[in-house]
Structures are given as structure tokens and as C-alpha cells.
Backbone:
């Protein structure tokens, strides 16, 4: 037996998936753990994720190099940041490209960065300021840090700037995280 359902309820895009989760699943959260620490997690509601991703998407679209449907290579070592910036890229109308970890060998790392840059036709690179040294001589790359983009959003929208920073520590044992 086929069930009938309202076609308006079916997400038409990835943006709709997150918006639907934020509006209809208010008690559900994303929980992420740092490597080698399964006792303490950070959690973020879908509404908080949507709010922060929306603010960050505005910072992306304000970049001079931004164009609709451009590629944004996301190279981060923090899962919660990666989740937020992935969705920010989607909400900005760009295409997220998740970067793999870089090689520890500087020459291989440089070749990797430049081959991706050539393959993806000069994408926007998004990373954390702590990871900038891994890019070495980055002349010619359109590289931006999450911190610089976040400061742009904080300056323009201080009322909701704390959405992402409102991660709650989840303690699954009685020990301190």
C-alpha cells in the first residue's frame, strides 16, 4: 500500500534538509568528539548549526572572489568547525570540497595543494589560522581563515554571533573533560 504524503514536506535541496532539521527537530543535536576522547563531546542543535552556517555563508558571499557555485576547499582539523563551514558553503550557494589531511613531507604537501588548485580551477581555500603554515608559500591561492571570516560575521551580527560558541560540554562520565 502506498502512502500519500505532502510534496511540500520533501526537501528540494540540501539547504532545505538543514532548514527542516532546524525547524522540526529542535531537541536533536549533533555530537562530535575530539580524537582519543570519547568521554566528552561537544553538541550543537540543528537550529544553532543553521544560525551559525547562515551567518558564515554571508561572510563567504562577501568575499571578492566569491561567485555562485564556486568551489570552496575546506581544510580544517576540527570536526565541529568542518560541519558548520560545510553547511555555510552549501547555504552560500557554493560547492564544498572536503580536503584530505596533508602530507607531513613539505614538497608532497605543496604538490598536493597546487595540483588541487589547478584541478579545481583556482578554488577558494578555507582553513584555520593554525594550519596556514602547512600551505607554505601560498601566493596565488585564494586562501581565507575561518577566524577572519567569523570576525566578519561577528562584526555584522553580534546578536547571534554566539550560536556556534554555545556548544555544550557533554559529559558521559563524572570526570572532568
Residues:
Amino acid at each position: 500500500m502506498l502512502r500519500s504524503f505532502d510534496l511540500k514536506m520533501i526537501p528540494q535541496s540540501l539547504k532545505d534538509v538543514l532548514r527542516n532539521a532546524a525547524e522540526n527537530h529542535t531537541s536533536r543535536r549533533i555530537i562530535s568528539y575530539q580524537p582519543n576522547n570519547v568521554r566528552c563531546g561537544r553538541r550543537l542543535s540543528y537550529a544553532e548549526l543553521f544560525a551559525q552556517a547562515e551567518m558564515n555563508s554571508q561572510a563567504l558571499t562577501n568575499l571578492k572572489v566569491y561567485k555562485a557555485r564556486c568551489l570552496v576547499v575546506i581544510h580544517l582539523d576540527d570536526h565541529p568547525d568542518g560541519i558548520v563551514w560545510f553547511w555555510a558553503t552549501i547555504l552560500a550557494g557554493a560547492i564544498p570540497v572536503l580536503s584530505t589531511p596533508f602530507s607531513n613531507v613539505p614538497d608532497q604537501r605543496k604538490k598536493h595543494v597546487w595540483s588541487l588548485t589547478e584541478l579545481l580551477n583556482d578554488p577558494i581555500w578555507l582553513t584555520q589560522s593554525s594550519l596556514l603554515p602547512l600551505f607554505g608559500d601560498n601566493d596565488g591561492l585564494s586562501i581565507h581563515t575561518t577566524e577572519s571570516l567569523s570576525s566578519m560575521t561577528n562584526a555584522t551580527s553580534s546578536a547571534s554571533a554566539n550560536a556556534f560558541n554555545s556548544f555544550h560540554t557533554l559529559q558521559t562520565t563524572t570526570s572532568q573533560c
Remarks:
- Helices lie at 14-24, 46-61, 79-91, 106-119, 146-156.
- Strands lie at 29-33, 40-45, 71-75, 95-98, 124-127, 142-145, 168-171.
- The longest helix spans residues 46-61.
